[in-house]
Amino acid sequence: MEVGESNYALLSSPYDSFMQKHLQHYGYFTGRSEVVKKYGFVPSKPQLITHSSDSDSSSSDEEQGPPHRRRSPHEHSEYKGRPLITDPKTAFRQNRLRCGLYLRSQNDESSFEPRWPTEIEVLPESRVRHIDVQPKQPELFNKPNPKDHMPYVRSADEDNGRTVFNYNPETCGYYMRSRIGGNRDGCRQAAVKIRDSDDTTVLFESRFESGNLMKAVQVGEFEYELYLRYDLYTKRNTQWFYFRLQNTQANKRYRFTIVNFFKSSSLYSNGMRPLMYSVHDAENNKIGWRRWGEEIVYYRNNLTAPDNPSANMYSLTWTCKFPNDNDTYYFAHCYPYTYSDLQDYLNGIQGDRVKSQYCKQKVLCRSLAGNFVYMLTITSPPALSPVPEQQLKKGVVISARVHPGETNSSWMMKGLLDFLLSDSADAKLLRDTFVFKIIPMLNPDGVIVGNYRCSLSGRDLNRNYKTILKDAYPSIWHTREMIKRFMTEIELVLYCDFHGHSRKQNVFIYGCENKHLPKERLKERIFPAMFGKNDISKFSYDSCRFKVQKSKEGTGRVVMWSMGIKNSYTLEATFCGSTQSEQAGHQFTTRDFESIGYHFLDSLLDYSDPDPTAS
Fold it and tell me: Is 582 considered catalytic here?
């Protein structure tokens, strides 16, 4: 199909065909185990509908307890004025909007709280918050040493080591329903109890937003082997990690080894360090996240993959000393940015009298778990825009966080929004020239539960932009349909989806070239080339690629290009740092990621400048 053709056909894959039948025949599952009865939704006979239905019959999505049971405050957190619709044909107990897009301000406060699958335990604690403070000195790449120790995984044998934390959600294999606060039975004891003041056991925890530690095994006094939870309803996808530690001792050398990675290579072999956060240092010294650890090695270990006995798993090991006694620490793969962080940010925009004039927030759809997928429309209102009526604005669509573990994409999005909503002359010119449609978090469910790649469907959303399954992939389906409508109203000049990359350094772009239209060829490379000139310390044009591979046909970039958007891109930013210019050897901070969003807009201005000598 040539670029420019708008009659893009939505092709159903074998998986789509399977899912259609799966959804249509909901009610005939055989696996009604105790876990389904406890956590899931068992339909009554009138709900066993075998034909496709799009009924608007209203019902609450909150769990129904036994008669006369006093309901918890969370169970009363309904969406006022917006009936929540249970689609009988789908196994995904979701909340469908009765009337499409509506203003974010029409929701009550409780509706902004994260909704969790009902089998997930969530700590009844105050939300985890971190300060965002930049390091005073550049954080340099770690220098790998081939002599560094690569521990053998001892906990593979259950007789070796002592399990000090164990939390593996009991699921029925697929998503059923959600509620605010997760499991209504609360949290069980997942970590060991400290015996006395001489007990040096580290207390681990991850049952908070975006946390994902599954198990910790003590194999030495100060040595622990860690297992990450796989993406929910899958047996794969471990890369992101985020967990808490307490009862550590200052100036003791600890070793932590995460033992269940799947990828054969990693940026940890090329200078990347884990991130560490000290609550004491944040509160008393205004120190935020910092790169931490020594003797960092990423290597193949002696474990076999759960879905392929012939394949090995990989370990990441590091040693470190903690600066304080009686402190609370966090480790993370990248700077966390949660669904609640996004809510706070959007609330700030909405509460700003000036910014709210040209940034309109709506709910594009709800996710499988009923969390909001927001869409921002940013442009100068007609009364404030100096652009003549005959000079029509052009459209730009930007999205992020389709892969929940790629938190750097949210920091890039924050930098873009900060600049676009600022009072600078360039920001005003951008708002006068373009209509921006921005979806800052495509996969809120995955972000909330701590997934790395998938949604609660157990699938990679960025391989399903061709989908016809509105109920299985709501954010993807609604995004694509929104773009199709937008293209009938305006000339859409650019689409870009923000991502993080786990194996390559720097910042770069994936685009789409059309070999069948010689006159159009190479035009898709102009914007990336301008980006490279504007951000020479981070952007690598040499790392950009423009081939359309068959395995990428379901990505947002390729599908939007096939719909006729010539400049259709994936913007990738490393989790590590730069090898470019004066910033070579420096690991990225949140400010570095935010600056990428600024340079993206700066390059867009250059690209749209009618004066060919301007850039």
Answer: no
